[in-house]
Amino acid sequence: MLQAIILVIAQVTVLLTVSPFLVGLIRKVKARLQLRRGASVFQPYADLAKLFRKQPVLSTTTSWIFTVTPYIVFASTLTAGLLVPTFISQNPMNFAGNIIALVYLLALGTFFLILAGLDAGSAFGGMGSSREAIVASLTEPAMILSIFAIALTNGSTNLSTIVHKTALLDGVATDPSPQLMALASLFLVALAETGRVPIDNPATHLELTMIHEAMILEYSGRYLALLEWAASLKLAVFLSLIANVFAPWGIATTAAPAAMMIGVLVYLAKTAALATVIGMIECMFAKLRLFRVTDLLGVAFILGLLGLLFFYTLRS
Amino acid sequence: MTEPGSCDNLLKAAFPVIVQGDAICGESSHFLVPKNLLPAITRYLHTQPSLRGRLTLIWTCDHRPVRDTYGLHYLFTLETSHHWVLLSSELAGNDRHFPSITPHVHAAKWYEREIRDMFGLIPEGHPDLRRLVRHEHWPKGTHPLRKDFPWNRVLGQQQGEYHFRRIEGEGVFEVPVGPIHAGIIESGHFRFSVAGEPIMQLELRHFWKHRGVEKLFEEQTLIGAVPLAERVSGDTTVGHSLAYCQAVETLLDLQVPRRARYLRALFLELERLYNHLGDIGAMCNDTAYALAHAHCGRMKERIMQLNDRLTGSRFLRNVIRVGGVTRNIENRQLTALVDELNRIQPDFSEVGAIIFANASLTDRLEATGVLDQQTAWDHAVMGVVGRASGIDCDLRRDRPFAAYDELPVNVALYRYGDVRARLRVRGDEIHESIRLIREIRAKIPDGPVANETSCSPKPGDWTLSAVEGWRGEILYMVMAGEDGRIHRCKVRDPSFVNWPAIQWAVPGNIIPDFPLINKSFNLSYAGNDL
User: Fold this and answer.
1) How far is the CA of A230 from the CAs of A17, A113, A236, A241, in angstroms?
2) Does B6 score more than 80 pLDDT?
3) 3 state DSSP class of A110
């Protein structure tokens, strides 16, 4: 029991501390690829500290939804993060929910963000909300399909079981095609859900082109800090999911201190590598035209579907 | 091809009442026209297939205290010969009405609204008489360019409402953007009517920061007003100061030494280089393709540092003066400049190749914000935007100034009128500017860089001058006053003409593409809002 509590606290600490670093790392990679020096990878921590000290400004047209949303988004994202194994495969919170709970915990945050975007009554918030609704409704089926492909090949919807079995190479199918399809699908979903290029541009100042940034345009002070932190947490959740579901090796499979130390280091290396890949993608592509986002997410859906089909054809 | 003489004969044959005038502004024909004939004659000039006159400028001048009249002047550029046709008319005494030519010549619509605001003269028959420059809070009867309006008068406030054109229907809503933006952008208001993401209509509302530039010119001397001209639009320092100085030199009958004319062309091309490089980068940045933005920004910075080394100013301030240029550039400095540009050019070619080879970027640029040739012609669009829509005009070739009579320019021309065409025009012009600078280095003669004069022009003399700045045609009309002062100075930045055209490039596109379209036009708010 005590061990479980300590592990939960460790997991929360790792997620909260690593997530701003990942955002800083993506920015740094982008800057270096553009021959710029770029801000320190620890800049996001300083930004968060600054925002938490600032007094928030609230529009008079806002309702309780606007002030409660940052807390809901932050809490739901963090809870979702507790369901994903990070450095130890047997997650202490695995009894609380499976992979489907994870999807809908993230969707809960998105839903409230959409409401908050509308709540402030500015023209841009509404545009951001309507765009986010399109993106969210298209990522959800793609994500569910790819997750089913993984769950079926591992015989469980519990993330800890999936990761644990894969890490120990226990009962893993010889042909990894379903996993590869699911990986490609989930990667596209991750780019869309975390608002990265080519779906959204987190660095833009142009209100008319924003998706995620438009919804949070009216936020300031600690509310903005919570939302920024939640956004980086969401990024960390997706990167952990991809890293540990598809390549869990190195993760601690027992609660031994030495194994866990190695687990933390390997986890950092894997998520940093994925963040670098995202930074490189952001330098290689222009943002898609808004109406082409549906095409890209359609591809993600088909990839997830192919993963499922491969599973059934390979089994028989 | 219409010869200048035949154009005069055509006009005189069609309208026997008109009288030849005596204006001094290079290759041009000048006619004095009774005001009731203005709509008919401008329509003839604009639509006659052998003339095809493009409206280039309309300006008004309050002649008080010399005589109690307002002068109205309409300048057309003939499409084939690039010859200027200037029509002048006068409103005498208490006559405050003149016939609007907008129903026939669409491009006149902002000019006539501006004249109404600044002079209180009413264009009768104008389809849209809402205020343009004078926002609704300006008190009734405020017409700053009238001679009886002191430049330092403090205005009161009044209430008023501007009525935007509205589209109504199920699912149609308005998106107001600006004048305060999230980024570092000048103040302009854009009112979109949208059905979902697709834009049905865009209406501009600019002129938020009226500075009274034309009024301030009237407080200056002819020689001393160069710094003011430099500051009309900060990114077009050389273009504006050169156009102004050329007008003053014509009035003073002052010859500019050949070396100075070459150096003026050099500065103009340097200004074009740094702005075009910045624009190409900024357009890529608006599609979130930050790589090209970073590299173009790097090259722009190198050009601006070159500017600084050559002239002491990154923005080329204080380099053009009446009679020449303020400082000589040594031949060895010119050689070093050409060497540096020789290093930048392959660098830019590489970035250009990356930009045009990137499929995701091309998908954003192609078929976005199309301004077709007919619409561009109707709005008298010119400059970079015009050349991307098949309007073949470049003053450096058509009406050579500075040293361009000895430096033939290859004009970049594209027909598609989309964002990509505007990007391509800029890319081609960067290469052309570097080629021109090499040619300037090869051909530049030795000699003095400025001439002086002691003569002063007769009050009431006026002239026109035109310069192809990096955005397009910059026009200045300068009229001399008493004691070497300025009686009236009309400034026309290309932005004033091209801004309304953006409203027609946008419908049918989606809202997230508007910033990209706007950036591809990259018009000046300050040069527009004088």
Assistant:
1) 12, 11, 10, 16
2) no
3) helix
- In chain A, whose CA is at the least distance from the CA of B194? A127
Given an 8 Å threshold on Cβ–Cβ distance, is A209 in contact with B286? Answer: yes
pLDDT score recorded for residue A171: 66
3-state class of B115 per DSSP? helix
Surface-to-core class of residue B210, CB atoms within 10 Å of its CB (0-12 exposed, 13-18 middle, 19+ buried) = middle
Question: Where along chain B do its domains lie?
Answer: 4-124, 213-528
Chain A touched by B171 (CB under 8 Å): no
CATH class (in words) of the domain with range B213-528: mainly alpha
Q: What is the predicted pLDDT for the residue at B192? A: 92
Tens of pLDDT, residue by residue over B129-172, are 999 999 999 998 889 999 889 988 888 889 988 999 999 888 89
* A34, A207, A217 member nearest B294 (Cβ): A34
Q: What is the pLDDT of residues A43-68, one digit of tens each?
A: 999 999 999 999 999 988 899 999 99
Phi, psi angles (nearest 5°) of residue B130 = -70, 160
SS3 at position B302: helix
Interface of B with A in 189-248 (CB under 8 A): 196-197
Torsion angles phi and psi, residue B415, rounded to 5: -110, -20
Asked if the C-beta of B367 comes within 8 angstroms of chain A's C-beta atoms, the answer is no
Summarize pLDDT for A254-310 with one digit per residue, the tens.
888 899 999 999 999 999 999 999 999 999 888 998 888 999 999 999 999 999 999
With beta carbons less than 8 A apart as the criterion, state whether B444 and B259 touch.
yes
DSSP B38: H
| C-alpha pair distances (Å), A265 with each of A243, A268, B277, B445 | 13, 5, 44, 69
Cα–chain-centroid distance for residue A310? Answer: 26
Distances (CA, A) of A94 to A109, A148, A247, B395: 20, 18, 19, 73
Mean pLDDT of B296-313: 94
Q: Which two tokens stand for residue B89?
A: 């008319």
Question: Tokens at residue B235, please?
Answer: 């990114």
Say yes or no for a CB contact (<8 Å) between B291 and A284.
yes
- Interval B316-327 mean pLDDT: 92
Average pLDDT over chain B, rounded to an integer: 91
What does the pLDDT look like over B451-464, one tens digit per residue?
988 888 888 888 99
In chain B, which residues have their Cβ closer than 8 Å to the Cβ of A206? 182-183, 286, 515
Domain boundaries, chain A: 2-315
Q: Please, are residues B499 and A193 in contact by the beta-carbon 8 Å criterion? A: no
The two three-digit tokens of residue B289, written as one number: 């393709």
Which of A209, A219, A284 best tests the B interface by mutation, with the highest count of B CBs <10 A? A209
Q: Is B524 exposed, middle or buried (0-12, 13-18, 19+ CB in 10 A)?
A: buried
Identify the CA nearest to B115 among candidates B157, B62, B191: B62
Give the pLDDT of residue B182. Answer: 76
Q: What CATH topology corresponds to B4-124?
A: Beta Polymerase; domain 2 (3.30.460)
Q: How is A125-150 classified by DSSP, letter by letter?
A: HHHHHHHHHHHHHHHHHHHHHHHHHH
With cut-offs at 50, 70 and 90, classify the pLDDT of residue B1.
Answer: very low
H-run or E-run covering B282: helix B258-286
Measured between alpha carbons, how far is residue A261 from residues A255, B268, B468 in Å? Answer: 10, 64, 68
Cβ-Cβ contacts under 8 Å, B510 against chain A: 289-291
Can you tell me the distance from the alpha carbon of A165 to that of A175, in angstroms, rounded to the nearest whole number?
A: 16
Q: How many residues does chain B have?
A: 530
From chain B, the residues in CB contact with A123 under 8 A are: 175-177
Sheet with B172-177: list strands edge to edge.
B172-177, B189-195, B199-205
Helix (H, G, I), strand (E, B) or coil at B292: helix
Strands (E), A160-309: none
Count CB-CB contacts under 10 A for residue A57.
11
